[in-house]
Amino acid sequence: MNTPSTSSSRIEDFSLFDPRVQSDPREFYNLLHEQRPVYLMPEMGMYVVARYEDARAMVQDHETFSSRSNLIGSKFDGSMFENYNKMLAEKGWARVDTLSWTDPPEHGRYRAIVDKVFNVRYVRELQPHIAQVANDLIDKFIDRGECEFVSEFALPLPGIIIAEQLGLPGGRARPGPAERVDQGVTAQS
Fold first, then answer.
1. Which domain holds residue 35?
2. Of 55, 89, 107, 146, which has fewest CB within 10 angstroms of its CB?
3. CB–CB of 180/173 below 8 Å?
């Protein structure tokens, strides 16, 4: 259920790139639901879809709403997408199509590979380890009484688990400011 916004703000007054919105997006999300459930972000030329029913319809209609990264990249203003890909390539991480960036039938091939490895039983077995990794991350900032949630928890947690599953050297991936690219997490040995 959406809480009606008590502000006189307009959706155009917000940006998902604003650190204040990223740290507390509730007003932005409320405004999305109230004013513009399908909102074109002017900074990116990409849409934010606020309603579940709309998002579900989009995900199921890959002909109209493609996940192909070459189409997504063409929507960025200027050469942002080209610069992003160049930064990745310079670090040895050339962008390739993966599960998140493909449509059927290619998506189905990637999904079949992932489903063999990350089945319900295996993920259930990982839960205690995931909880331990989460606790280890929290231990690093709990005494401060606050954290920068994205960089200190939300990005490292899946990054560490995925890095471990891929068998990257050193076991755990740790974000480093020089190695972060567009909010990505890198693995360091």
1. 1-60
2. 146
3. no
Specify whether the CB–CB gap between 35 and 61 falls below 8 A: no
What HEC string does 127-154 produce?
HHHHHHHHHHHHHCCHHHCCCCHHHHHH
Q: Structural domain tally of the chain?
A: 2
Claim to verify: residue 122 and residue 189 sit in the same structural domain: yes
Q: CB-based contacts of 56: which residues, under 8 Å, 6+ apart?
A: none
Contact 85, 181 (CB under 8 A): no
Dist CA 145 CA 137 (whole Å)? 13
Q: Tokens for 45?
A: 């030329």
Q: Classify residue 87: in a domain, yes or no.
A: no
Helix (H) or strand (E) holding 71: helix 69-73
The residue among 11, 45, 60 that closes a domain is 60
pLDDT, tens only, 63-112: 888 887 665 555 555 566 677 778 878 888 777 777 878 889 999 998 88
Task: Report the predicted TM-score, pTM, of the whole model to 2 decimal places.
Answer: 0.52
